[in-house]
Amino acid sequence: MIHLTKGVIQMSVYVNRILNMKKIKAIGFDMDYTLVRYNTENFERLTYSLVKENLVKVLGYPKEILDLEFDFQLVQQGLVIDKLRGNLLHVSRFGKVKKAQHGLGPISFEEQNEAYANRVIDLSDESFQSLDTAFSVSNGILYAQIVDLKEKGVEVPRYDLLADHIKEAIDICHSDGSLKSQVKANMSEYIIQDEKLVAQLEMYKKCGKKLIIITNSEYYYCKDLLEYTIDPFLKEHKSWRDLFEITITLSSKPRFFHFKNHYLRIDPETALMTNHEGPITPGVYQGGNAGKLQEDLGLKGSEILYLGDHIYGDVLSLKKTFGWRTALVVEPLEDEIEAIKKSEPTQKKIDSLMQEKEVLEDNLDDLEMSKYRGESYDKDEVSKIYAKIDKVNNSISKELENYRKCFNPHWGELMRAGQEESRFADQIEKYACVYMGRVSDLLENSPRTYFRPIKRVLPHELI
C-alpha cells in the first residue's frame, strides 16, 4: 500500500489505485466508525460487559465469566478465529499462520507448525471467523478469555459453539437496545465530535458533491448520533438532513449490494414509514438496494465513492458488484503509524545487522564450496565465521524484541505478519482505492484532488 506525498509533506491518505475526485459526483458514507467516530476502547468495554451478561443470563454460561476483565490490548483488528481449535490467528496475505494463540497463551512454534504449516487459511471456510472491524475487538477478547477458562476446567461449550454464542450475545445487545440506549445516554463517553469534519462536509456539498448515508443502523439511532455529531457545527445547513441528500437506514449491507430489496420512505419528524414507489429522491429511507440508488442518481459506478470501515460489508461487495470507487476507514491506523515512526531507529539497526549477516553468510558459503572445488578448506576460519554469525543473530534477536515493544504486545504489527503483509493489509490493498485513519483525512483534501499511487517497486527492480 502506497501513501500519497505532496512536496515534502506526507499526507494521511494512502493510495492503492488512482482516484480522481473531480470525476466523483456522489459520496456515500457508512455511519458507525466512519462518519461517526467512536471512542473505541470505551465502546468495546461497554459491549464486552453486556455480552458477558447475555452469555450468562440468556445463554446459560457459568457465572465465572462475569469475573473476566476487559483487556483492550489482547486482540487487534484483522485477526482470525479458528473455531475448531479454539485459537486466535495472525495470518499473512498468503493465508499462512504467522502467529497463533490458544486462550491467553501463545502457541509454540512446533505446535503451530503441526497444525498450520501445510494449510492455507480460507475465510470462506465456516470454521474460521474474521475479526475485521473495530466492532469485533470485544468479540475476540471474550473468545480468548473463555477458551482459557475452558482449559482451566470451567464447563463451557466446545470452541465452535462458543464462537457462535458470542456472536449471538452481541446480536442480542444490538437487537434489544441495551447497547445503543447506553450510548445515547452517555454520548460524550462513547462518541467523538469532530467540528472540522462538518466544515469539510459542507465544503464538499458546496462544490457540488451529493452526500449520501448508507448505514445498517436504525433511523432513531442514526438520527440521535447525527444530531449530536453534525448539527451543532453546521454553518450553512439547518440539520444533517439538509446536508445529506439521501439517507438510507437499516440497509442490511452487504445484502444492499446484492439483492433488490424494496425501499421504505421514512417521515423524519414522526419516523413513520410507507412503501416507496418510483425514483429515489432526496429524503430518508429504510432498506432498498444499491442498483436502484445508482440508477435513480443517474450515475455510473465510477462516479460514486463510498467510505466505510468494513472490508466485507462496505468495500468488497460493492467493488465486485457495481464498480463504485471505495475508501476504507481503518481506525487503528494512526496508532500503527506512530508505532512505525517510534520503531524506525531500531529497524535501521536490524537492517544494518542483516547486511552484516549476509556478508558473513556469503563468505561462509564461499569457504564451504572450496571443498567441492578441490581447494584447501580452512576449518578454523569457518568456525570463526559461524561464531560471528551467532553474535550477529543474538544482536538481531535483541533488536527484534525492542522492535516488537513498539506495537501490540500480543500480536505486533497490524499490517504485517512477519515479513509479509497481513491478510488484513492484503484485503485493504485489493478492495480499497484509498484508505485512511478517519474520514476527515480524505476530506481535508480538495474535492478536485487527483490521488495517484506511487509506482510499486518489484523485487527485480531493486538494482
TrEMBL record:
UniProt keywords, alphabetically: Hydrolase, Magnesium, Metal-binding
Protein family membership: Belongs to the 5'(3')-deoxyribonucleotidase family.
Record keyword Aminoacyl-tRNA synthetase present: no
Top-level taxonomic group: Bacteria
InterPro entries: HAD-like_sf (IPR036412), HAD-SF_hydro_IG_5-nucl (IPR008380), HAD_sf (IPR023214), Pur_nucleotidase (IPR016695)
Keyword Transcription: no
GO MF entries: 5'-nucleotidase activity; metal ion binding
Entry protein name: 5'-nucleotidase
PANTHER family assigned to the protein according to its UniProt record, in alphabetical order: 5'-NUCLEOTIDASE DOMAIN-CONTAINING (PTHR12103), HAD-SUPERFAMILY HYDROLASE, SUBFAMILY IG, 5'-NUCLEOTIDASE (PTHR12103:SF22)
